[in-house]
């Protein structure tokens, strides 16, 4: 995936990047929340929805809690990785996300997985997402919509990375 140049809303040249995000939730009506979050992001200036995966029912990571509904989306963005992260965090808050416990239950979780082929490692942002290659609940929906995307740290295709994880606890819930 390569960054391209286009004109932004003010007519100035800006970078256009293709990004992958993961979505999940296990509090409230997760399906409705995830669908509404996708619509919110798609209507955010500087973001265009390129595609979204099916939704998958998955076992939680962390403390005992309800199962999750997870999926992924591909976005075309005209914003920096930091601004995209801020936008994702603001969207989580809009849908009632409260950060109380690491890997605890939540109404909405949005993770920035990939931003073109960038590798970023700062205290507040890591791209690719540092645990995505270990998580079937991320790789299965991502492989559905971006199988040929090369994860830049490993150099492997997403469709090949999914073969290296246990997929037994990831069940199709709602297909597109």
TrEMBL record:
InterPro entries reported for this sequence: Hppk, Hppk_sf
Catalytic activity as recorded in UniProt: 6-hydroxymethyl-7,8-dihydropterin + ATP = (7,8-dihydropterin-6-yl)methyl diphosphate + AMP + H(+)
Pfam families per record: HPPK
Presence of the UniProt keyword ATP-binding in the record: yes
GO MF entry, a single one: 2-amino-4-hydroxy-6-hydroxymethyldihydropteridine diphosphokinase activity
Pathway: Cofactor biosynthesis; tetrahydrofolate biosynthesis; 2-amino-4-hydroxy-6-hydroxymethyl-7,8-dihydropteridine diphosphate from 7,8-dihydroneopterin triphosphate: step 4/4
EC number(s) per entry: 2.7.6.3
7,8-dihydro-6-hydroxymethylpterin-pyrophosphokinase domain segment(s): 102-113
Keywords: ATP-binding, Folate biosynthesis, Kinase, Nucleotide-binding, Transferase
Keyword Kinase: yes
Family matches, as CDD domains: HPPK (cd00483)
Segments passing through the bilayer: none
PROSITE patterns: HPPK (PS00794)
Record-given protein name: 2-amino-4-hydroxy-6-hydroxymethyldihydropteridine diphosphokinase
